[in-house]
Amino acid sequence: MLFPPDVWEIIWLSLKVTTTAIAIGMLIGIPFGAFLGLYSFPGKRLIVVLVYTCMGLPPVLVGVIVYLLLSRYGPLGSLSLLFTPQAMVIAQVALVTPILAGLTMSAVQEKERAYRETAKSLGASPIQLIATIVREARTGIWSGAAAAYGRAISEVGAVMLVGGNIEHHTRVMTTAIILETRMGNFPAALQLGLVLLAVSFLFNSFLMVGALNQWKAKRR
Amino acid sequence: MNILELRDLVVRHEGKTILRVDSVRFEQGKIYGIIGPSGAGKSTLLRVINLLERPAQGSMHVFGTDVDLAALTHAKGLPIQRQMGFVAQKPAMFHASVFDNVAMGLRYRGEDRAAIRPRVLAALKLVDLEHAAGQRADTLSGGEAQRIALARALVYEPPLLLLDEPTASLDPHNIAIFERVIQTIHQTRRTTILIVTHNLAQARRLTHACLFIHQGRIVECGETAAVFSGAACRELQDFISGRMIC
Ligand SMILES: Nc1ncnc2c1ncn2[C@@H]1O[C@H](COP(=O)(O)OP(=O)(O)OP(=O)(O)O)[C@@H](O)[C@H]1O
Ligand SMILES: [Mg+2]
Question: Band of the pLDDT at A1, cuts 50, 70, 90?
Answer without folding.
Answer: very low
